[in-house]
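Input C-alpha cells:
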C-alpha cells in the first residue's frame, strides 16, 4: 500500500493530509489518480507546481513518471516554496 502525504494547498484541496492507495503502481498512475479522484486542475497543479518526493528523495516527474512504487513507499506532495 503506497502512502501519499499532502502538504499545504494540496492538503487543503484534497481535505486530507494522508491517504493509503493499494492500486497505484507507478508515479504516472498516481497523477492519473489525482485527475480522476480530485480533478484535472489538481493533477495539473501537482504536475506544474509541486515537488514530489518518494521515500524522502525528490524525483523529476517527467523523467521518473514510470517509476515503480512498492507497497512500503511513501510519496509526499510538496507545495511550491517561496521566500521573501
Amino acid at each position: 500500500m503506497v502512502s501519499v502525504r499532502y502538504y499545504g494547498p494540496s492538503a487543503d484541496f484534497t481535505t486530507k493530509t494522508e491517504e493509503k492507495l493499494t492500486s497505484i503502481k507507478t508515479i504516472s498512475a498516481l497523477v492519473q489518480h489525482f485527475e480522476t479522484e480530485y480533478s484535472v486542475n489538481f493533477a495539473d497543479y501537482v504536475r506544474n507546481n509541486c515537488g514530489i518526493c518518494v521515500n524522502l528523495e525528490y524525483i523529476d516527474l517527467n523523467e521518473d513518471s514510470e517509476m515503480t512504487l512498492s507497497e512500503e513507499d511513501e510519496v509526499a506532495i510538496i507545495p511550491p516554496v517561496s521566500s521573501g
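The helical segments are 9-14, 27-37, 40-49. DSSP finds three helices and five strands in the chain.
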